[in-house]
Amino acid sequence: PRFSEIEWPITLLLSWVCDWGKHTAGVPDELWPITLLSRRKYKLTNTADRRLKLDLLIWLGWDTDKTDIDLHVTEPGGEEIFYGHQKSSKTKAQLSRDFRQGYGPECYVCATALSGNYKVKSKYYSSHQASKTTGATSAVIWCAKNLGTSKEELLFKTERLTAHKQEKEVFAVEM
To answer: Cα(92)–Cα(86) distance, rounded to whole angstroms?
Structure first.
């Protein structure tokens, strides 16, 4: 299927939104679509209070169909996590599937981050459009630092990518 494995990033996002609504805005548990998805089976949690907490979540999406934009995260020790190396040997952070035919997303998830600087890049790998004249695409990158805690911070940036194989540093995150 064209969008196989989209469930993992979407379930991650849904779990975070429901937790955020509950701990920030006082929204009751009923925000979770319990009639469609069993909370026990699908809600992502990693704490005793059944919430999702991550030191670092980075999410990349883009606005052009049949296009491959890649997320690259370089960790403090210099290890680069991307489609060709999806799991960190030091932090155990994981990158989602490489989405090459749609709008993404690609996600970097790190439960326990090392102290230091994380460099985030987007790369316009290719377009699979029928036309060779397909132009630029916009990459939307956001980062949640200390997700699920009272110190949660969000960064949000868009980048216009205009050439195949173009790579752009989007931002750096200090942990």
So the answer is: 10
Beta carbons of 100 and 4 less than 8 angstroms apart: no
- Mapped onto helix, strand or coil, the DSSP state of residue 59 is strand
Taking alpha carbons only, the member of 59, 61, 63, 60 closest to residue 134 is: 63
pLDDT, tens digit, for every residue of 81-127?
999 999 999 999 999 988 777 788 899 999 999 999 999 999 988 77
**Measured distance between the N- and C-terminal CA atoms of the chain, rounded to whole angstroms:** 37
pLDDT tens, 44-62?
777 777 778 899 999 998 8
What is the model's pTM?
0.84
Question: Distance between CA atoms of 68 and 100, rounded to whole angstroms?
Answer: 4
Q: Tokens representing 44? A: 């992502």
What's the rounded Cα separation, in Å, for the pair 32 and 17? Answer: 9
3-state secondary structure 11-57: HHHHHHHHHHHHHHHCCCHHHCCCCCCCHHHHCCCCCCCCCCCEEEE
